[in-house]
């Protein structure tokens, strides 16, 4: 287990380095010109433009900027020169070009919003999706099965911004059943946090549960035709025991994998959800940073997204070994 | 239990499945009887209806898609039409089953011990975990698994094929069932292990005094352990008799085919094995008359009865021994002659 973790962590670090390099190179190959975008609509003179360009350190070679950036993560660094220089202690992810806010604090502010949306949503859609899927499998061919298959098709083909806006209109503005979406820290006001997040969770729950419902149904139907399920019935096990003790665990294994990777990917930013509900999350910030050519912010979001996926994969592999005794991790395998 | 009647009595069992392509007549009028302490071998190719027969006895078919008729009496109780909950109580308690592939038939997610304990506690809900564990360990030891305490905590994939089949047998016998159905229990094993498992089954049968149905495609296996043999083809009984009758005086051309396709220690070592030509019939579209006639070298066609009339399962009239029945239109004298001249010489180990 330990060797497995060490090896996976090393791979993760290499992955992150490769991704950071790619982002840097792409940024400099592209027509990015943060200095002009900082000048805004009032065009700067050439001299002003150059001064900003230099203050951002953009006149130096890419490799030097990259090593600087990496050094900043571990030991901190000074950004800019002279009187306008900003001190950025480790772990330094750079500063926002426009507001001079430390990127670290931008992430610290926006990531909890994204994480709340993603994890809360995942709890809703996994429970709801797996439960309806399993139930539909067991009651195959009944009205419930047909209804849930139909409903999941409808929800799966709906977009967040459509269903979200619709629910916002109905549940918040017309009926007033739910408070408007907002982010309140769960540490200061847990109930307010749930209230503010409820609508995004329900929306994500409805849309994403469709996929999990269909997947669970298919998995469960396949598992119920397995020999060991027949053996369980031949032993005289009650039907509940056959489903829960024998079939569920086998059916759920592949779902865990997909859920883990999904959650990991969503943590990189739920831009559409955040925009639909005007929540100040990381995805929304990243989209704005891209249009502003705000390299440091884009870089940080991309790296955190990549880190989330890498971690999700390690967690999934470890969970897999816990669920299925036949799976051995890394070097333990024969 | 009524002592006048055999422990298991199956009469005119018919099983039909509804499929998208039409109705399948998987079992079409099968009758047999079995006493405790006796072993019945059901022999046939895949698709002959032998496994369906056993699943139907257990009530393990899909009820919505299956139509069953006839009678299955177990210890005096009628199983056909019995409510699911009563049937469930019989399963594993009065009737237990061993399946062919122990790797897929045992739950890969649970330890062997916990699967044994589960089997015991389903039918002994008042038993404590410790009692069930003790019983499970006893059974593992009884079926010849060395170091049962360690094995108890292992998963099925950590067992060898033979050991896993032993564990499966231990699990099926943990409740001391009166009827044990073994569906191709040795097919997935290599030959030496096969013999060990068959010996074990025989020993256990003597000890537990249970009735055993052994389902197999292998007449060799049947000749080793069965008392009576039921040869099935296309969902119907072709021939039914004691193991001596089937192995020494086979009357049905299909049985002859099975015998001739078996290697023998006594016959000519250079003689070719004779496979039965053709394939088993599609049960969606059963041939008219005798199901076997399209593959039968002796069929009387062109106005003859074989492709028109379904042969009845009738007792032999010339034989001195009772209990041997066969479903074939050929005259009995002709069958005896053909067997002695063409089949007996192939030599069958008994």
Largest interface: A-B, 21 and 26 residues
Structural class of the helix and strand makeup of chain B?
alpha/beta
| Sheet with most strands of chain B | 8 strands, mixed
Q: Low-confidence runs of chain B (pLDDT<50, min 5 residues)?
A: none
CATH architecture descriptor text of the largest domain in chain B: 3-Layer(aba) Sandwich
Mean pLDDT of chain A: 86
Overall number of structural domains of chain B: 2
Number of E-state strands of chain B? 12
Task: Examine the secondary-structure arrangement and name the CATH architecture of the largest domain in chain A.
Answer: Orthogonal Bundle
Give the low-pLDDT segments of chain A.
Answer: none
Supply Rg of chain A.
25 Å
Element-by-element helix/strand order of chain B: EEEHEEHEHHHHHEHEHEEHHEEH
Query: What would the principal axes of the Cα set say about the shape of chain B?
Result: globular
Oligomer: heterodimer
Describe the protein.
The complex is a heterodimer of chains A (334) and B (350). Chain A is mainly α. Chain A has two domains: 75 residues, no CATH class; 183 residues, MetI-like (MetI-like fold, Orthogonal Bundle), CATH 1.10.3720.10. Chain A is built from 13 helices and two strands, in the order ααααββααααααααα. In chain A, strands 1-2 form a two-stranded antiparallel sheet. The longest helix of chain A has 36 residues. The model of chain A has no long low-confidence stretch (mean pLDDT 86). Chain B is α/β, with parallel strands linked by helices. Chain B folds into two domains: 224 residues, P-loop containing nucleotide triphosphate hydrolases (Rossmann fold, 3-Layer(aba) Sandwich); 96 residues, no CATH class. Chain B has an eight-stranded mixed β-sheet, with helices on both faces. In chain B, strands 2-1-4-5 form a four-stranded antiparallel β-sheet, with helices on one face. In chain B, a hairpin with a 2-residue loop joins strand 4 and strand 5. The chains are: A mainly alpha (334), B alpha/beta (350). Chains A and B meet through helix 9 and helix 10 of A and helix 2 and helix 4 of B.
